[in-house]
Every structure is written in structure tokens, then in C-alpha cells.
Amino acid sequence: MKSYFKINCIKIKKKKIKVGDKSLSHRSIIYCLIKNCIIEISNILESLDILSTINLCKNIGIYMYGPINSYLLASSLKKKNMKNKISYIGNSGTTIRITLSLLIKNNFVIGDKSLNKRTMYRIIKPLTLIGYVLQCKKNFFTPIIIIKKNNFGLKYNLVNSSSQIKSCLLLSSLNSFFKIFLKEKKKTRDHTERFFPILKKKIKNFNIKIPNDFSSISFIISYNLINKNNFILNLGFNKLRNGFFEYLLNSNLKIFFIKKKIYKNEHFAKILFFKFFIKKNTIFSENISKMIDEIPILLLLLIKLKNKNKIYGLEELKFKESNRFLSMYYNIIFLGVKIIKKKNYLIFKSKNIHNNYVKSLSDHRLFMSFYIGNVYNVKISNPENILSSFPSFFNLFNNKKNNYYVYK
Hints:
Blueprint: H1 22-30, E1 38-42, H2 48-60, E2 63-68, E3 71-75, E4 86-88, H3 93-99, E5 108-110, H4 121-130, E6 133-136, E7 144-148, E8 154-158, H5 163-173, E9 180-184, H6 191-199, E10 205-209, H7 214-226, E11 231-236, H8 243-250, E12 254-263, E13 266-274, E14 282-283, H9 295-304, E15 308-311, H10 324-334, E16 338-341, E17 346-349, E18 357-358, H11 364-372, E19 379-380, H12 393-396, E20 403-404
InterPro entries: Enolpyruvate_Tfrase_dom, Enolpyruvate_Tfrase_sf, EPSP_synthase, RNA3'P_cycl/enolpyr_Trfase_a/b
Family: Belongs to the EPSP synthase family.
GO molecular function, one term: 3-phosphoshikimate 1-carboxyvinyltransferase activity
């Protein structure tokens, strides 16, 4: 006998949310650099980071039409002859890490002031082992110049859990006679591997529908859990990215799957969320790779729920848009939360939050996390950071109790 759930009895506010997955948006555009084809992409994320990837592809000679209303058409069947090989990619570390192995030689890649202070050692090292000749600033900072490209094959142990480095190396091997063997210490997101069977087909027209970004949806989930609302969401449901969701389930979050489907090897889900109370207090390092982008909002959610918590395995946060590990630690101290910092883990307990100033630097997730955390009368710097990953953020969260300011 089938069981049914009556949704009409629950008060739910209806609001259309279109926030394309950032990781899939980057990769969908980059596939034009691998294969001569036409790609139609719907529900693409129109953010600054994605625009950086689009501009990079345009500089290489790919025809791009859009993005318009979350739609983009890319064609690499006939490439332009481009004389300008200088590509400016803003603050998008994802763009440089994934595309570096696909760029033509004598290409010059430079970022903004923030990106130029982030080391690219973890991606430059394996590429030099393959046979690439690269020139960069001291400490492996950008700008980076590709002088020569070879591909000798490689057996490489991915000590750091980074899906971007893995994707870069895998994509470099697609049009090569040599094989690359990679060994992961921890499993990371597998969007690139899921699309490999489709890329190998002899088809020159692709239609890609991008699901809603789970990292962006996590802000909506946290906001509604804090305000004790029932809600329904459409989202991408990759098993290697839903660590935040798994943690909430283990903490007694009640959900109901309304719809599930698979499109182009990617999982889509429509879920009803209702009832939540925290139970689990420790997060172990083995689960961190599945929720690395959601750690800032998870910290603020746990602080809001006033529990004592321990989170291990946070060393990867040091290599994000800012040193997220230290940034979260110091900003949480400013709010009056008791917190202990060790080499790669945090222990904290929340009681009352003080009014203070939060410095989000150039990190979009820090700004959005403290904003969603409903920290009343706390001033947060750099609201323009949201443009890199979630441009419609303020349209969805019109909360008058939060104040945001721009500090130069």
C-alpha cells in the first residue's frame, strides 16, 4: 500500500528560486575547450566567477552568446583567431585551477588583488610533473604564463582533497595518448567524471540543464531552520556534496522527498523540510570534504542554536577565497562566542552574541553566513562579495534587522 503525505496542511510560502550550481556552471562552459561542439546551458549561474570563465573562453576564441535569463549558448566548431592572449579572471580561483591545463601556450592569466595573493602551488606542481613549463611570481602567485605544453602521463597521489585539481588533471588527459592515474585520500565531488561518458559520444550538440546549487541552497535552508519555517526546495543532490544535508538528518531534521530524477548523470531532488532540533555535537574530518563550502553557514547555524560543538578537519578552509579558518575564528570571537582554535579543528559554545563589526574580506560565503545568522545590529563589510556566487541573495533575504555596510 502506497503512503501519501498531505502537504496542504502545512503553510508554505511559494517563491521561485533559480540559483544554478556554480561548479557545474564552470565545468559546462569549459567542455567547449575539450571538444568541438555546440553547448546549450540552461539555469546557468550569472555571477562574476562564471563571467570570468566565459571571458577566458572568449579570449581563446570560443563563440559565446549570453548569459541571458540564465541561458548560455557556446560554440567551438569554428574558433576565432585571437591576438590578445591576456586573460583577466578577477577573483575566481576555480577558473584558473580547472582551466590551466586546457589553455593554449603563451597564454597569460592574471587575477585581481585578492587572487594574486593566493598560492597556486597545488595545481602548478602536478602540471609541471606532466611536462608543462609555467612561469609565475614568487611563492607560486599569479600571474601565470604558459610557456610550453607537454603531456608525459602521470601517477599522482592527491594528498589535498580538491576536486578542482582532480578535474584539471583529468581534463588534460582527455585529448592525450598518455594516461593519468590519480589516487584520492578522500573522495571529492565528481561532476567532471559524471560528464565523461557524454563527452566521449560522437555528438556535436549538447543540452545541459544545471540544478540549483546546494551551497547556495544551504543559506536558504539555514535561514528557514532558524526562523522555524516549513519549506520546499528544488536542488542538485550529489552524494559527494551533501555533507551539510547528512549532518542535519543526523541531527533530527525531518524531510520528505517529493520528486527525484537523474539528468545527464546528475541527480535532482525536490524536498519538503519540516521540524528540526539539534542533537549531534561533533563533526569528524571524514565528512568535511562533503560540506567544505557550507562550513561557514553551519558554524553560524550551530552558534544560533546555542550548542557546544566540535568540528575537525578544517585545514582545507585555509585555501579558499580568504583563510576561512582564521577569518571565521576571529570574527566569531568578536561576537563574544567562546571558541578554542587548534591546528585543524574548532571547539565553541554560544550563549549571547555581542554587537560588533564583522570583516568578511573578499570572501562571499563569510558575508552571507553572518547575514543569514540573523546577528542583529552587527555590521558586516563588503556586501559586493555576493556577486561572485549568489547575485540574487538580497532579493531572497530582505531582512530589515540585518545592517550591511561597505568599508574601503
